[in-house]
Amino acid sequence: MILQTFNLSKFFEGLRALDGVSISVPREALTLIIGPNGSGKTTFINTITGFYRADEGRVEYEGRDITNLPPHRVFREGIVRTFQIPRPFKKLTVLENMLMPLNNPGEHIRNAFVKKWVDFESESVEKAYDILEFLNISHLTFEKSETLSGGQLRLLEIGKALMTDAKLIVMDEPLAGVAPALAHEILRKIKELCETGKTFLIVEHRLDIILDYADRVYVMGNGKVIAEGGKEVIEKPEVVEVYLGA
Amino acid sequence: MAFEALISSILLWFGIYSILSLSLNVEYGYGGIPNFGKALAVLVGAFTAGAVVNRILIAMYSIEGTTITQRSGFMKSTVDSIIASNPAYGIGLLVFTLLLAGLIGAVIGALYILPSAKLESDYLAITLLAIAEIMFMISYYNTDLIGGYYGAPVPDVLAFIPGELREWAFVALILFFTLLTYLFLERTLNSPYGRLLRAMREDAVALQFSGKDIMWVRIKTLAFSSAIASMTGVLYSFYAGNVVGIVNLFARVNWTFFPFLMVLLGGMSNNRGVLAGVFSFVVIWRLLDGYKHEIADLLNLPFDVNWLQYIIFGALMIAILYYKPEGLVKEKPIETEPIKELKSKHSEKA
Ligand SMILES: Nc1ncnc2c1ncn2[C@@H]1O[C@H](COP(=O)(O)OP(=O)(O)O)[C@@H](O)[C@H]1O
Ligand SMILES: [Mg+2]
């Protein structure tokens, strides 16, 4: 297991948004989290990536305790995430957005002045362009990201995650608003990446598209894990019930 | 002669305010840090010259006197007469004071931004303003530290230049530092560092999920920009021959509000725009000041003419924010050489 949580809980003024969640994410596979709106999926991601402080429980990554590390430390441990509502750096171009998750030596003032970053930048720029081409948005490379549509912004979020060396990529509804053909292509690519050492933890609503790609599925309801297993779990009565009840 | 004085004062203030506004642009235009206490870094420069270097010189020449103001005055006449026949002494003193101010400015800048660890940007702006105001009150009402409202004379580092040329020599000196600052910042900011600052301005929270330690970026940035602003304080103190131009009750207007106005007027995170903003501002400001009595007679103002510029600049600030928030020169993406290469490669294909 690359990531494990133990009884992870997060409360918002009495609301148990996460209520003792224990999830294990197997290495080099796609783990899917589903559940109705408000069941705590985004809160789970926010809590493991340091956006929220956990009120109870523990998060372990590669056997190390990373509970409540600040976001930049979680990233440096090797976990990158995307946002359900994309958060681009609006006035920056698509390419500049893509370059942000890299640790360019030129981000330090001294290196910036002596130009000890040009080689790194050249490589990064090429890599970014290749990923943008794969995502079919390379024609937007030099556009300000504020001009992108919702679907394009989601692709940019995915692109940023693919720029990093992170071993675990956590995505919050990456496929919302993405055309089915491209969505399948992205998922095929994700499966390919799983074979090259990456692990994906994905929250997604569009089961029709994603379910076949999932190696392991967790179903959440009211802040708890109500079912887990292979893709057949969605047929369990308790899962059907929480979906119909929602 | 009045015309010559007008031109030299425009150039002088253009130089002083360019350095200061370029430094504010690093923090605010690029980094989005609302440093409403900008004047503090300028005060550090005055402090370095008036309180630190003055005391060193007073001790070196065993100068006696009752107050720091008086001792500084005696020391100034001793030191000025040495510099008059020894230019290297004057230049050495200038360089030493600038470096020391840069050092102290960097340390104070780094400490001063620490509250931003906990505060959102609105509260941060007020907090920074409050810190700067307190430091100014202490420096102004405590006459032992740096002379307070009596001021403290500082040496004339260009005392070797004949009196009638001194004004222009200072203009040249300050414009030289302005050019240096501009070239230095252009190079430092057209880089991944400049991009990092802009991303921080756009969304500091999201940036943390790209692995950036925002607090550390802010600390380094404020140290860097405050060092530059402190040097401005030194240059202006040496020009004026006294720290009173900085240690006074108008500091928040002259050394914080005006630079903000110039950055907004020129255009955020765009050094050339900032220079354009500074130049436009300084021309209007010096003309208003130079012809204020004529204007007062003409308009038959029902209030003191000195208020006129505050009213005009206040209105100008609102007008810019309302009608032209992007300023005179629009922000452009940072195009590093590798990005330019990629762009030309793919625009050929298209
Ligand atoms: N910052 C917050 N403050 C208060 N309540 C929140 C906050 N974030 C989420 N919640 C609540 O927690 C519950 C779970 O939300 P969320 O994790 O966004 O659900 P999901 O992503 O599964 O749709 C919801 O009831 C939501 O209103
Ligand atoms: Mg959600």
Write a brief caption for the model.
The complex is a heterodimer of chains A (246) and B (350). Chain A has 246 residues and is an alpha/beta fold. Chain A is 35% helix and 23% strand.
Description of the structure:
The complex is a heterodimer of chains A (246) and B (350). Chain A is α/β, with parallel strands linked by helices and 246 residues long. Chain A is 35% helix and 23% strand. Chain A has helices at 41-48, 71-77, 94-99, 109-114, 118-134, 150-163, 180-195, 207-210, 237-245, and strands spanning 3-12, 15-21, 24-25, 30-34, 56-61, 64-65, 79-81, 168-172, 199-203, 216-221, 224-229. In chain A, helix 5 (118-134) crosses helix 6. In chain A, 47% of the residues are buried. With 350 residues, chain B is mostly helical. Chain B has one domain (2-250). In chain B, 76% of the residues lie in helices and 0% in strands. Chain B contains 15 helices and no strands. At the A-B interface, helix 2, helix 3, helix 4 and helix 5 of A face helix 7, helix 8, helix 9, helix 10 and helix 15 of B. The complex binds adenosine-5'-diphosphate (ADP) and magnesium ion (MG). The site of magnesium ion has 4 residues of chain A, from helix 1.
Strand and helix layout:
The complex is a heterodimer of chains A (246) and B (350).
Chain A: E1 3-12, E2 15-21, E3 24-25, E4 30-34, H1 41-48, E5 56-61, E6 64-65, H2 71-77, E7 79-81, H3 94-99, H4 109-114, H5 118-134, H6 150-163, E8 168-172, H7 180-195, E9 199-203, H8 207-210, E10 216-221, E11 224-229, H9 237-245
Parallel strand pairs in A: 4-9, 4-10, 7-8, 8-9
Antiparallel strand pairs in A: 1-2, 1-3, 1-5, 5-6, 10-11
Helix pairs in contact in A: 5-6
Chain B: H1 2-30, H2 39-60, H3 68-85, H4 87-112, H5 121-141, H6 143-146, H7 163-189, H8 192-202, H9 204-208, H10 214-240, H11 251-266, H12 271-290, H13 292-299, H14 306-323, H15 337-349
Bound molecules: adenosine-5'-diphosphate and magnesium ion.
